[in-house]
Amino acid sequence: MVNTLTPNELLHITRGEILQQGPLSSINYISTDSRKIIHGDQTLFVALKGFKVDGHDYIADAYTKGVRIFVVQHEDTDTHIPNSTVIRVKSTTEALQDLATWNRLQYEGIVVGITGSNGKTILKEWLGQILANHFDITKSPKSYNSQTGVPLSVFGIERHHKAAIIEAGISQPDEMAKLQAIIQPNIGIMTNIGTAHAEGFSDQKEKLNEKLRLFKDAQLIIYRKDHEAIHQSLQNLYPADKLVAWSEQPGGDYTLSIKKEKEGSKITLIKSDLGLYTFHSRFTDEASLENLRHTIVASLVLGLSEPQIQQSIQELDTVEMRLTLKSGIHQCLIIDDTYNNDLAGLDIALEFMNSQRPKKRKILILSDLLQAGDKGSVYSHVNALIRHYQLDMLIAVGTDIHRLKSAPPCEVYFYRDTAHFLEDFPGLSFQDDLILVKGARVFQFERIVDALQERIHGTVLEINLNALRKNFTFYKSLLKPTTKTMIMVKAFAYGGGATEIAHHLEQLNANYLAVAYTDEGVSLRNEKITLPVMVLNPVQDSFGNLIKHRLEPVVYSLSFFRQLGEYCRSNNNAISVHLDLDTGMHRLGFGEEDLEELRSLTHRYPELRIASLYTHLAGADDAAHETYSMRQLSLFQSMCSSIQSFLGYRPLMHALNSAGIVRYPEFQMDMVRLGIGLYGVEVNGLHENALQPVSVLKTTISQIKLLKKGETVGYSRKGTMNHDGKIATIAIGYADGYDRRFSNGIGKVIIHGQKAPVIGNICMDMTMIDVTGMDVHEGDEVIIYGAGLSLKEQAAAIGTIPYELLTNISSRVKRVYYLD
Ligand SMILES: *Cc1c(COP(=O)(O)O)cnc(C)c1O
């Protein structure tokens, strides 16, 4: 909610012109996303022009939600939005920023601005959590830290808040000045400076100085003095009395040293007046400990006492900012959001829920909202959200949440606490439902997730749907806007899980899906995926299913054409099919010599409608085969024109896979078939940095053993300790898809950022690794594939290709999806 704004003020702030004068009601909310509008009659809709979506396309939707006042930038915006006020500005992004600046100026509390390369979001969450135990505060939702995210965060600052914590991130020079004007932090925190996002900047120093502009008008700036470059730049830019430095070494305003303990770390704080305090935390990794110390210093600066901080620090947990999606019992799908519970977060989680594929019911399990402020208005907002997202059932846990009692328009159950819900739980019959579990930390809703989650074993494949989207966008950027995309979700979407990935791509407006077998297509249809689906290897006994589920088979031979034609004729069906033309792959497909006969078959069986013609390149990923590829492409074009001439209509034409899109974009034709690239592997090695790894395979340490030099490890005694040392047994084996060829040091895994080799032979369900000299514990996380262990390198080490590693990950490995 923003400070109430009149249309005249709006006109003045945005320096716009009135295109159309409608009613002049005042504004309490500003929205850029029509899906999220709740109080339409009090909402201003700002149509942003984004890279992927254009807000102007959603004006009609906002209108149906009750909005009657709009800010637009299109020259040709249809001004006939009935009975509405429309204001046109040069740039809607700038207008949004100006509105945020205006909202900020009305606020008299403290604004904490956080920037830096890493840790911003965690620091914001932690500081927010500690402060929220004592004051009514607000903070940026998720990682809303961009040129449009920051204004939206600032709109969340209300008069009653005592403090606001806002994070700022930039990717281009000159962006920070704009964010500074919007945030105007009183207190600044600089986390650190890394190499990430260096693209738009000429060098490290330029980037650092740009970031530090956020603190132009801040009274105090908190930073770590051990980061020499930051210390230097701050000293050059700002007077010494503004700087609050902490350091591991004596000499800063606060000295914060670390000692590792048995179960975590001890942080000792020495203040310049020699006051001495200790804090305990279960974190041991460097990044968390740095963030923690920033949090401690910021809390002290904001007036909390050491005992208050000590108490809160224990409760801090790894920030599961990410909304994760897990398979549940009885075919349910669980959205796990058990970290915190405030209104902004609830809204985000419900929206995420809404974008999932439909299940039978939408169920929300919700705890008390730990949000200071007027409880009545908090819960009436919750009510509005429940109505807006059309939930079928609410399970409310807590003592405060009873305030909802009067209203929610769905089935509701109340429980005093989590234990009471879990007692009752076996009696609640969830089946094929979509369940959002959203609770504040103290309610320990992870126990609920635990009860609802389908158990398999400790190994998971995490799939980052945002990375998938970015990879998709990268390939789209190489294509003309009109070129269609067919996404290969064969083989369980290269191991990633076909349904979730297909659903996500449907949301991203992909045009076609392709699977290997009819059964794979049938399961997509059963999961309510509606995109057209091509089936690469249909077999005769699946004809009925193809037709029943509107699946489109590849026809690759004359005899297959005849069989399918006969089947359709006798059942009175018609079907869309795709013809595979063999131009040199020599796998399946029609050769040139088949075209004559194909002509007569197409005439004899008009039941088969040819939706597309395609070919597949045998060596698209290698420059060495360029001449061959060009020959394939030209043969394809000539075969296509013969076929078109006898068909009398023009099917779609497509030839390029992921590697082909990068190498031969001029042959994109009507459509491309995107596979491995989407999953984060650029097989040409030309654009590796443009893609993001989509999946991380991880497991945990089951046991640690100390062994003496000369002792052997595992089957056939293949591993020998060549020193006194330590091994860890991890919960993954070849039956999970961890290839046995990784045995005996060929494979490496990552624990706490460090590589450790496999020792001995890989077993069916377990693997031993040498962790001599490493500080590791039972239960620690182990990364098998993921950042730092590129799939390409791993595959090369055992003489295979990334495709095989991905598709070999066994179906017993739980797939978990998240959005970061
Ligand atoms: C698997 C497959 C693709 C996708 O190949 P990638 O190398 O994964 O991009 C494209 N076309 C056909 C016919 C395929 O079988």
Say what the CATH topology of the largest domain is. TIM Barrel
How many extended strands? 38
Q: What small ligands are held by the chains?
A: pyridoxal-5'-phosphate
Query: Regarding CATH, which class of the largest domain?
Result: Alpha Beta
Strand fraction = 15-25%
**Number of separate helices:** 25
User: Which spans have pLDDT < 50 for at least 5 consecutive residues?
Assistant: none
The helix/strand class is alpha/beta
Average predicted confidence as pLDDT:
90
Give the termini distance in whole angstroms.
25 Å
The whole-angstrom Rg is: 30 Å
Give the overall silhouette: globular
> What CATH architecture of the largest domain would you give?
Alpha-Beta Barrel
Helix content: 25-40%
Describe the sheet with the most strands: 12 strands, mixed
CATH superfamily of the largest domain: Alanine racemase
Domains, number: 5
Active site: 490, 715
Pathway: Amino-acid biosynthesis; D-alanine biosynthesis; D-alanine from L-alanine: step 1/1
InterPro entries: Ala_racemase, Ala_racemase/Decarboxylase_C, Ala_racemase_C, Ala_racemase_N, Mur-like_cat_sf, Mur_ligase_C_dom_sf, Mur_ligase_cen, Mur_ligase_N
Keywords: Isomerase, Ligase, Pyridoxal phosphate
